[in-house]
Amino acid sequence: MRQSSYNQRTVSKTASLQGVGLHSGAKVTLTLRPAPAGHGIVFVRTDLPRPVSIPALADYVVDTSLATTLGRDGVRVGTVEHFMSALAGLGIDNVRVELDGPEVPIMDGSAAPFAALIQDAGIRELDAPKELLVIRKPVSVVDGDKQASLTPSKHFRISCTIDFEHPVIQGQAFDLDFSDRDFSREISRARTFGFLRDVEKLKKLGLARGGSLENAIVVDEVSILNPDGLRFPDEFVRHKILDAIGDVSLFGRPVIGHMTAYKTGHALNHKLVRKVLSDPSCYEIVPARRRELEGLDLGFTGMAGALELEPLVA
Question: What are the coiled-coil residue ranges (predicted)?
């Protein structure tokens, strides 16, 4: 029997992990709690005299200089992108995320520990269809030689290219047709990276206090400093895709469109998200019920959270 809808997801039970903040260097505990349909992803700072809730939405982005930071009423939650990427990669729409500090723990610098936490908590389907954000016309943003765009597509796809004047990195490109299986296998384990010269500067400014070879790929002028090397030959561009998935998840809904990214970072990713949201003619919100999707000819069967939905047929 065919499913009638592509439903929202939450976690089945409470689960926690502990790590250090990349910039603060302080220990922080992150706890996932189940949430009802329509709740969305909401961060809650529990270390304050009165807990402050911050929805994981583009309207709450307050800084993109070193990572993606959300804020509300002067309270911040930093470095959310890897965690958000894991939620998107496993199709989680609703969860209460409690933090006892100002920053999501960096863990190993990838999304894999967060994906493992979600899987440990279990994934539960809710009795309400997802709402999809369907791109209806091309949208692009440019910053010098950097560019990002979203164009209409039958599913979510990301094509990313990077170009660094460094002998280890150089030019790399990767194309991902987004699904939970492909995210876990191809993207989730890709770690963040940085240049030794920049790390030293940041530490002098009191930042990157929690940064180490245990949670980032670090390169000097000619080589990779991590003793175990890379997890993928093109781990650098794969991590850029991981970041982009986390950043576009701040639409608050799964995206149906093709994202093309050339030398992008958090700032340009969010500029693209805000430009789409600023023009309602660029997108349509569609409930993921079979009858609506059949009429729109959307092919999303491999997407994260599709729950093995059968191919759409006339």
Answer: none
82 annotated as a binding-site residue: yes
Give the count of domains, the chain: 2
Amino acid letter, residue 281: S
Domain that holds residue 122: 7-129
Judgement on whether residues 279 and 162 belong to the same structural domain of the protein: yes
Q: Is the pTM of this model over 0.90?
A: yes
Asked if residue 267 and residue 140 are part of one domain, the reply reads: yes
65, with CB counted inside 10 A (0-12, 13-18, 19+), is exposed
CB of 2 closer than 8 Å to CB of 310: yes
Same domain, 287 and 150: yes
Query: What amino acid positions are annotated as catalytic residues?
Result: 266
Region label for 282, one of left (φ > 0), alpha (ψ between -120 and 50) or beta (otherwise) = alpha
The answer to whether residues 117 and 157 belong to one domain is no
Angle at 179 between CA 123 and CA 125, to 5 degrees: 25
Sheet bearing 157-163, strands edge to edge = 139-143, 146-151, 258-262, 157-163, 171-177
Q: What's the pLDDT tens digit per position in 94-122? A: 999 999 999 999 999 999 999 999 999 99
Q: Are residues 121 and 166 in the same domain?
A: no
* 239 annotated as ligand-binding: yes
314, part of any domain: no
Check pLDDT > 50 for residue 306.
Answer: no
Q: What is the pLDDT of residues 236-277, one digit of tens each?
A: 999 999 999 999 999 999 999 999 999 999 999 999 999 999
Burial class (CB in 10 A: 0-12, 13-18, 19+), 48: exposed
Structure tokens given for 214: 């245990």
